[in-house]
Amino acid sequence: MKNTLKMTGLLSALLFTGSALADSPVWVTSGLKMPESVEYDRVRDQFYVSNINGGVMEQDGNGSIGLLDARGKLISVDWVTGLHSPKGLALHNNKLYVADVKQLVVINVDSGKLVARYAADDSMVLNGITISKTGTVFISDWPGNRIYTLDDGELKVWLENVELNSPNGLWVDNESLYVASWGAKPKQDFTTETSGNIKQISLKTKNIRTLPQENRWINMDGIYPYSKNKWIISDFIKGEILLLDGRGRVEKSVTSKYGSADFYYIREKNLLIVPLMMDNKVVAYTFE
Q: Among candidates 288, 212, 201, 196, which has minimal Cα distance to 243?
């Protein structure tokens, strides 16, 4: 899987990044190890980055969390080690929650120490994370078409349904969980049989609604609210960050590179912080 990932990543990079020039970044940070997700810490004014550093499904102990300062300077590529293939990140009450293949890892950001691990042995690849205002942790199982929650110290399946369409990035508000779906049946080169789309799931009934989308193929990774009924999403394969309006039309976009993964949007700074997984970089773009 690891060699296949590297070869298909190189091939896809050649195919997809040659067709358009990338938008000019505000800053670029090199030296990461297959960064998949970025989380901003407003209190400490710094960024956490998940480093896969191997196969996306491997439990090899090679993964880590990197640390950047507010201007993107790399403080430590391996700030926290002892992970496998970490992906989605979410910060809540001085704890950093990390989706790590078949477990949820919790890090105390004050000490930089691992403080908990919660297993999901039946999962395939835990990926996106979001945390509600009340502290409920939701985690997506990307190829498993499941959503897990952390409940009384255990990871439990909250919803399992093929309609989730390979759930990746997550966002939760008071009433709904929003899912950036990748598309049906991901292959080893990450391509799919169908386009991804945004799913809205009622927290109360768990009913799934697919939000409108124009006739555009998108393999969605990250998701972040921009304003009412408008969403920023990343397209991993095309290497784009898109603002979708309430009808699913592209209102604005940033062209990055193949491998644009689980980004973070800092609204007050009009900055998109995007991990480029195949380039071992994190880049910041203006987005207003």
A: 288
